[in-house]
Each structure stands twice: as C-alpha cells, then as structure tokens.
Amino acid sequence: MTDHATTPGPEARQKIDTSVPHSARIWNYWLGGEDNYAVDQEAGDAYTAVFPGIVTIARSSRAFLRRNITYLVAEAGIRQFLDVGTGLPTADNTHEVAQRIAPESRIVYVDNDPLVVAHARDLLHSTPEGATAFIDADVLDPDRILASAAETLDLTRPTALVLSNILGHVADHDQARSIVTRLMDALPSGSHLSINDGSRGIDPVFEQAQDAYNESGAVPYNLRTVDEITAYFDGLELIEPGVVSVPLWRPEPTFATLEPVGEHGGLARKP
Predict the structure, then answer these.
(1) Mean of per-residue pLDDT scores for the chain
(2) What is the pLDDT of residues 179-206, one digit of tens each?
(3) Span 234-263, mean pLDDT?
C-alpha cells in the first residue's frame, strides 16, 4: 500500500481564502458536507434562492460518478483511476466505490485547491491490497500530473481518467479539450474517460444563476453546450447511452422516472 500526499504546511493553509466563496466548498455545502465556511454557505444559499435545483444537480453528479466507477470496475475490469479535480472529500469517493468491489484498485487524486490539499489525508484510507495517492497539481499542467501519477499507477495498463466538474474551470474550451487529449494520449488502449460538467440548453434559470455567480467575483465555472461536452470524447468509443444528462446515465432500477438536469456526462473507451 502506498498511501501518500503532499502534506500542507502553514503556508499552504494560509492560502485558504475564507473571504471569497469557492466553488469546491460551495459544492461541498450543497452535498451536505462540513468543509466550508460562512462565505460559502451564504453564496450557496443565495444561489439556491434563485435556482433551488442546483442541489439536485450536485447530488445527481455525485451519483453519476458512483455509477461510472461501478461500471468501470465491475464491467470494464479497470483497476487504476486518475481522478483530476477531486474536490473536497464526501461520501462515495472514487477509491471507496472502486475498492468496495475490487480491493486491489489503485487511485491517484489530483487537485490544487488549498482546502482540498489540507484534507487530502481523508482521501487516503486505502485497502491493504490497493493504494491511494494525492497530487497537488493544476489541471492546466497535464505533464506534471502524468509524471506524478506514474509513481503510483502503471500507465502502461488500462486506466480510467476521471474529470468530474473540473473542465468548466478552464475558460477556453479548446484548451480544455487539449488537456483531455494530452492526458488520454498518455494512456494505453482499453483506458476509459469519464467526464461530467454543467451544461447549457436544459434550464435557462440554472444558466442565469450560474452567469450571475460567475460575475460575483467568485472563482468562475463555465457551462458548456452538450456538443462541447461530447467533443471531449472525440476518437473514443462512447459507452451506451452516450453523453446524456447525468440522471439518465444508466440509472438504478429504483428510479421509475428521471428528469434531465443541466449537467451532462458520459463514459468512453480508448480503442
């Protein structure tokens, strides 16, 4: 077992700005977590006052990720995961879902938010058979991510790249696509790509709320069209049902009817 992380010192902790709301902490608040501050709660409440459905989107996104990981382990046989843009630890983190099914799974988490770094140890409770690691790195630096991930993962073997609600933080869509391409190019045939991000074209009220949030001075998050999200999977083999609103991606049988939300995602295999 090789559980390790970049341990934040006092300087890293001082980088946590509690005067400005941050999307990772607001997301944590909407998910019912405790790793957030009053400024994040106020921003989260202001957002839900305009668009209460954001809580449903947040929780649907998390459920989508859980179903993706379950498919990857149980049906695709994946045992290695590179989770970029991890966010704050909540229930059903990638390693928890994967190692419940296959204890030997190895997971590398990547994030550079100071609060996430400060809580990285919470992501490192691996099974004895597997391993988890944390890399303090920016999604804009894929080469560093790959070099560090190779210390824990064997990147000559099929690996799942997970990008959950992180590409919206890359302002330029072409740059976001190039990041995905660089990361996937380094992975062998049989690897998979899992992406979900906030989307335009489903709910105008959601879009207005997000645009207002981006103009508030908080760290912006850019919604993409469904076509833009689908473009991330160019050259890959999409797993059925393709790129869809996240509640509609292989839903559990317990849900009789599901409504689409402004969050789309998909899963694809590298041929």
Answers:
(1) 90
(2) 999 999 999 999 999 999 999 999 999 9
(3) 90
d(CA 144, CA 260): 36
| Distance in angstroms (rounded) separating the CA atoms of residues 110 and 67 | 20
The pair of three-digit structure tokens given for residue 122, joined into one six-digit string = 């919470």
Give the pLDDT mean for 142-170: 97
Distance CA 116, CA 127 (A): 21
DSSP-based three-state secondary structure for 252? coil
Q: What pLDDT is attached to residue 86?
A: 87
On the question of pLDDT at 6 being above 50, the answer is: no
Find out whether 126 and 152 touch, Cβ atoms under 8 Å. no
Q: Per-residue DSSP letters for 23-80?
A: HHHHHHHHTT-S---HHHHHHHHHHHHH-TTHHHHHHHHHHHHHHHHHHHHHTS---E
Kindly compute the dihedral angle of the four CA atoms of residues 31, 32, 33, 36, in this order, to the nearest 10 degrees: 90
| CA-based torsion, 18, 50, 244, 214: positive or negative | negative
Cβ atoms 188, 158 nearer than 8 A: yes
Q: At what angle do helices 204-214 and 38-50 cross, to 10 degrees?
A: 150
Q: Which residues of 74-85 are buried (b: 16+ CB within 10 A; e: fewer)?
A: eebebbbbbbbb
Cite the DSSP H helix spans in 75-152.
94-101, 114-118, 142-149
Calculate ∠ Cα 203-209-212, nearest 5°.
140
Q: Read off the pLDDT of residues 128-147 as tens digits, 9 standing for 90 and up.
A: 999 999 999 999 999 999 99
